[in-house]
Design brief:
- This protein is of the alpha/beta class and about 425 residues long.
- Helix content is about 30%, strand content about 25%.
- The chain is built from twelve helices and 19 strands.
- Strand 8 (about 140-145), helix 7 (about 170-180) and strand 9 form a beta-alpha-beta unit.
- The mean pLDDT is about 95.
- The structure holds pyridoxal-5'-phosphate.
- Pyridoxal-5'-phosphate binds near residues 53, 233, 234 and 270.
Length: about 425
């Protein structure tokens, strides 16, 4: 271990783990601020609004930083909308994506007065028209196009191929615009595209934007006003040092500038992972070591319910033991206590020899960590802590067993339907 491995945003992680317990997520405020600053810097004078993808990390403390930066929010549920609003993100900066917006959720978003709906099916478009008419409001909408571009990422986080459930084909979108005069309460004046997540190359992003831009030009030539183009999120981060090479933010924005050159409306961006992933670590302690028949298991107190990415996507996360002295390495399968063989953070990973009680940090867990967590195996949700230049603040206390059981009761109060 390097001396500074145990220091994160000026906080000694050993001391933190003793105070807060493990498993525990720790997020560096400094790292998040840096990302926010460099994104704002790269966008420069562009007429752009960053709508942080709440799904990446929905903790209110994180959302508040986004609000302070002047960012909006990309939401996919009424729950995410409430979080964004409570964190101080104004409704006028909220966009609503997702294939399964319920009528109740659409009505809530209309009542809140959000900026824009990213519409993903003709049925949703008609529901939006009906519900907006019922409220007698005119709502802004973008069509999410599915450009049939391969994001070259994991299949489960790829969203822009024609076989995916997201968006509609450009041919269908063309028809929506042709028929848009009939939409008395929906102002269809935007395009939206998001082809996938954890992209480490600009090529698919460029290809998707080229198709979107060609469509925008065609629509304008046909007399339609296009006031916003939402380029989605998807920028990748480094999960494996020396192996993953994320694109530079300036290059990403350069592609947007080039492909959308001449566009006079507002450009929306929906980054999630890129803003927060590398700012987070998951702290976990070794419970015990078990020599199996074929493999050596390092059993830690975090599990797939805390961090689902490895079990869902076979995702790699660097793991750094915070042992104080130099030790020889060994290959371990790093696993959690959950009763599933998929509860595994790493296979045959070479790590310094570990002992029960050692503290490890699982890297790059600021995004899609807590936001995908569950209480599987009746494991309470982990604590979340924000670090800032030597200080820490608990931004979600560890869930107690009482919290976990709070809404359950024996089947006593029977009712007839
Ligand atoms: C519509 C939409 N926008 C933005 C994002 C954020 O993506 P990322 O976290 O990769 O930036 C997602 C993620 O799935 C999404 O579905």
């Amino acid at each position: 271990m390097r001396i500074d491995d145990a220091l994160f945003d000026g906080v000694d992680l050993h001391a933190l783990a003793l105070r807060v317990g493990t498993p525990c997520y720790a997020y560096s405020a400094t790292a998040i601020r840096q990302r926010i600053r460099s994104l704002i810097g790269a966008l420069g004078e562009l007429d752009a609004l960053v709508c942080y993808a709440v799904k990446a990390n929905a903790n209110l403390a994180i959302l508040q930083w986004m609000a302070h930066a002047g960012f909006g929010a990309d939401i996919v549920s009424a729950g995410e909308m409430q979080r964004a609003l409570r964190a101080g993100i104004p409704a006028s900066r909220i966009v609503f994506s997702g294939v399964g917006k319920s009528e109740d959720e659409i009505a809530q978003a209309l009542a809140a007065g959000i900026a824009r709906f990213n519409v993903e099916s003709v049925d949703e478009l008609h529901a939006l028209q009906r519900l907006a008419a019922a409220r007698d409001v005119i709502v802004n909408a973008a069509v999410r196009i599915n450009p049939d571009v391969d994001a070259n990422t994991h299949a489960k986080i790829s969203t822009g191929k024609s076989e995916n459930k997201f968006g509609v084909a450009i041919d269908e979108a063309r028809q929506w615009f042709a028929d848009s005069a009939r939409l008395t309460h929906v102002r269809l004046d935007g395009l939206h595209v998001h082809i996938g997540s954890q992209m480490l190359s600009l090529n698919p992003i460029r290809a998707a934007l080229q198709r979107t831009a060609a469509f925008w030009r065609e629509l304008v030539a046909a007399g339609h006003a296009i006031r916003s183009i939402d380029v989605g999120g998807g920028l990748g981060v480094c999960y494996r040092a020396g192996h993953d090479h994320p694109v530079a933010i300036a290059d990403y924005v350069g592609v947007i500038r080039r492909e959308l050159a001449g566009f006079e409306g507002r450009i929306l961006l929906e980054p999630g992972r890129w803003l927060v992933a590398e700012a987070g670590v998951l702290l976990t302690r070794v419970i015990r070591i078990k020599q199996g028949q074929e493999r050596r298991f390092l059993i830690v107190d975090a599990a797939m319910n805390d961090l689902a990415r490895p079990s869902l996507y076979d995702a790699w996360h660097d793991i750094v033991p915070l042992t104080r002295e130099q030790r020889p390495t060994q290959a371990y399968d790093v696993v959690g206590p959950v009763c599933e063989s998929s509860d595994i953070f790493a296979r045959a990973r070479e790590l310094p020899t570990c002992e029960a009680g050692d503290l490890l940090k699982i890297m790059t867990t600021g995004a899609y960590g807590t936001s995908m967590a569950s209480t599987f195996n009746s494991r309470p949700l982990a604590a979340e802590v924000v670090l800032d230049c030597g200080r820490y603040a608990v931004v979600r206390r560890r869930q107690s067993l009482d919290d976990l059981l709070m809404d359950e009761r024996p089947a006593r109060d029977w009712e007839n339907v």
